Each structure stands twice: as C-alpha cells, then as structure tokens.
UniProtKB/TrEMBL annotation:
Annotated transmembrane regions: none
Stated name of the protein: FIST C-terminal domain-containing protein
Transmembrane helix recorded as keyword: yes
Keywords: Cell membrane, Membrane, Transmembrane, Transmembrane helix
Membrane disposition: Multi-pass membrane protein
Lineage, broadest ranks: Bacteria, Bacillati, Cyanobacteriota, Cyanophyceae, Oscillatoriophycideae
Location of the FIST C-domain domain: 250-398
Subcellular location, principal: membrane
C-alpha cells in the first residue's frame, strides 16, 4: 500500500493538473488504483473539464472528488497546506494491491425507505457487509436526504467506518459539484467502499468544551427539551437532601450555569453556546468524543424549553458546551495525543498510511487567525500524506453512529490492517 498527495496553486486548470499529476506519479512510483481530487471553487467554470483532463493523463480505474471553497494537500516541499478562497487543486493517489475499491454514485430517488430491510441498502451500495467495507463519502450540498442516507448506511453496515463531507463553494456562493469516473454529478452522492487489507480510523474534532455538568432529559419532544434532571460531575444523579432528584426547565439550568461562568465564558456563551448529547448511555465518566455537538437553535422563555439541532428523547444526557479557537485547538490536540498513544502499538501499519481531512468552512484561517492550523497540528503527530477540503458539513462517527457535523475537522486515517 502506498499513498501520495500533491497540491498545485497554478491559476490554469491544465497547468494545475499537469503539476499534481507529475508530483504524485514521481512520489508514488507504482501504478495507481485510486485517485481522490479536490478542486477549488475558483475553478467552478471548469468543473465539467476536470475529470476528462485528469483521466487523459492518469487513466485511473477509480477516481472521485468534489469542488470546495478550500482544499488541503501536500506542496512540493512535502508540507501540508490549506488553500482557502484561491485557485488550488489537490490530488491523492493510492496503490492498493490487497484492497478492492468499489465506487458508487447515488441520487435521492435511489434511496430505500428507512423502514426497508438492510438488504435493500446493501443492494444499493453493491458490497456485502461481511466484507467489512470502509466508506469515503462526498455529497453535493443540494442532496436533500443526507441524514437518511447515513442512517441507512449505519443500518446495513453497522461495523463500518464512514467519513467524508459536503462539497462547498466560496464566500460568494456559486456552482457545486461532485465527481465520479469521468463525470460531474449534481444533487448526488459519490463514494467509495473499500475492503480488504485496509481500515479507516477516525479523529472527529468538534472543537467544543463542556461547561457545568450533565443533565438527564426527563421530558422532550422531537428536538425540544422541556425538562431536565440534574446530574453530578461523574454522570450520576445528584440527589437533593430529601432523596429526590432535582428537576427543572432547561432554561433554568442554563441561567444557573451562566451565573457561575467567568466573564470571558459568559461573553462567549452569548454566541458560541452549543449542546452536547451523550452517545453512550452507560458510560459514567464522560470525556471529549463522548458528545455529539448540536446547535442550540432557540429558547422559549415562557415554557423554559430549548430547541436543539437534533432529536432528543427522555433518558438521554446532555451538557452545554462552548466553542472558540483555543478550545478547538486544544480539542484536536487532545484527540491527536490519544490516537498517537493508540497507534504506538502498530507503527508498521502507519508506515504507508495516509489521511483525508474534512474540515468545516468555519474553521481554517477565519477561526485561528493563521493558515494551515489543523493540518500542521495533525502532521506534528502523524507525518503521513494528507489531502482533503473545506466542507459545508463534515461526516464522521461519534459513538456507534455516523453523523453530519458542523464546525468540525474529521480526519480519516487509511492504513493497512494490523498483523
């Protein structure tokens, strides 16, 4: 297994393609089985020409990609770069001798009903669950049923990792596109199911830190939290002196919490407050990565209720979170340290590994005030080829499910299976 990543900032599409192909082939030194291409929306008028031009030079059996407001790749000095709002082309090539690569493209009309058996989802993808496929998914943002697709994919392939993102455009908007083979597709999903001697491991950095302590939802309807029950620091119920747990409206819980914050966090809570939903109902000591972060959509002062960007049900635990650049950096570093410790047991499998980076348009230089922050931090811990793009939404697992995220950096680390 070999992977290479190449990046060009040439303003001409033909010149950019020539540069990335030459750089990638020089470093791969093997016949490529797979290509992934990410193209800046500055080239939007050339999207229809991208895949035919690439295939002329590479003649790849499998090639997928998408357009984006920013792309990530390795420059000629082997440094990771994030190019935002400027012409850029990123190409990753892979030689995968013991891996089967199955590409697919799907429209919303192709999706089975969510009540359908898993066999219909397997027929849609074309790969057996027992093959343990790993998925890379690129989605046109006008594909309207992404959550249904992810839910169905988890249903049919519960043990498989799924990573990816929604194609994006520049600040001013414009044309989107996802690509497979020699064609551009609109309002569709393109993807890969990889199986054989390959695993994809994930780092999902949602960039938030918890404040206060957890609450258990006691009343909720759809995405509305109506009542919560206090939880202790370790997740156990915090009992009142009478032996009865304390129940209150989520707005009361939030008001009590804000009063205890320092002035900096109190200001941050005015526009960067989120809700984390605990994914593992049985885990007592909660850590970063245990929460699915969702937007706080609104508050009903009369009912004391809050609305969040996901369905809730009684029994789930929630905790309020804050997000800023420092928190985002610390969150990613903590997760990288954790992965590095885990990976120390299989250093050989990482020798020929690579990573795909799917980062929110709301991160990058706009969040950190400096370029290449997430990619450089990642490469400090894992010095492997990196390619990817800035997304309209990021796809990655939390707990046992796969979700569409926001303000997140998802890394998919592709490596050989552990011997």
């Amino acid at each position: 297994m070999r992977w290479v990543s190449a990046l060009s900032q040439r303003p001409s599409l033909e010149a950019a393609i020539k540069e990335v192909v030459e750089l990638a082939q020089d470093h791969l030194r093997a016949s490529p089985d797979l290509g992934l291409v990410f193209i800046s929306s500055a080239f939007a008028s050339d999207y229809s020409r991208l895949m035919p031009l690439l295939q002329e030079q590479l003649c790849l059996p499998t090639l997928i990609g998408c357009g984006a407001g920013g792309v990530v790749g390795m420059n000629s000095r082997h440094q990771a770069q994030e190019i935002e709002g400027e012409p850029a082309l990123s190409l990753m090539l892979a030689n995968l001798p013991d891996v089967k690569v199955h590409p697919f493209h799907i429209s919303a009309d192709d999706l089975p009903d969510l009540d359908s058996p898993p066999d219909q989802w397997v027929d849609l993808i074309g790969v057996k669950p027992e093959d343990q496929p790993q998925f890379i998914i690129l989605v046109d943002p006008y594909f309207g049923q992404i959550n249904d697709f992810l839910q169905g994919l988890d249903y049919a392939y519960p043990g498989s990792v799924k990573v990816g993102g929604l194609a994006s455009t520049g600040v001013m908007g414009g044309t989107t596109g996802v690509f497979c083979g020699s064609r551009r597709y609109s309002e569709e999903i393109v993807g890969l199911a990889l199986h054989g001697n390959i695993v994809i491991e994930t780092i999902v950095a949602q960039g938030c830190r918890p404040i206060g302590h957890p609450y258990r939802v006691t009343q909720g309807e759809r995405n509305i939290v109506l009542e919560v029950e206090t939880q202790g620091e370790d997740g156990d119920l915090e009992m009142a002196s009478s032996g009865v747990s304390v129940r209150l409206s989520p707005l009361e819980a939030l008001q009590d919490l804000v009063q205890d914050l320092n002035e900096e966090d109190r200001q941050l809570a005015q526009n960067s407050l989120f809700v984390g939903v605990v994914r593992d109902e049985f885990k007592q000591k909660l850590e970063p990565g245990d929460f699915l972060i969702r937007n706080l959509i609104g508050v009903d002062p009369r009912a004391g209720a809050i609305a969040i960007g996901d369905r809730v049900r009684p029994g789930q635990r929630i905790q309020f979170h804050l997000r800023d650049s420092r928190t985002s950096a610390e969150d990613l570093e903590l997760l990288m340290e954790r992965y590095q410790r885990q990976a120390s047991s299989f250093p050989e499998e990482l020798t020929n590994a690579a990573a795909l980076m799917f980062s929110c348009l709301g991160r990058g230089e706009g969040l950190y005030g400096e370029p290449n922050f997430d990619s450089e931090l990642f490469r400090r811990y894992l010095n492997i080829p990196l390619s990817g793009f800035f997304c309209n939404g990021e796809i990655g697992p939390v707990g046992n499910g796969t979700f569409l995220h926001g303000y997140t950096s998802v890394f998919g680390i592709c490596r050989q299976r552990k011997n």
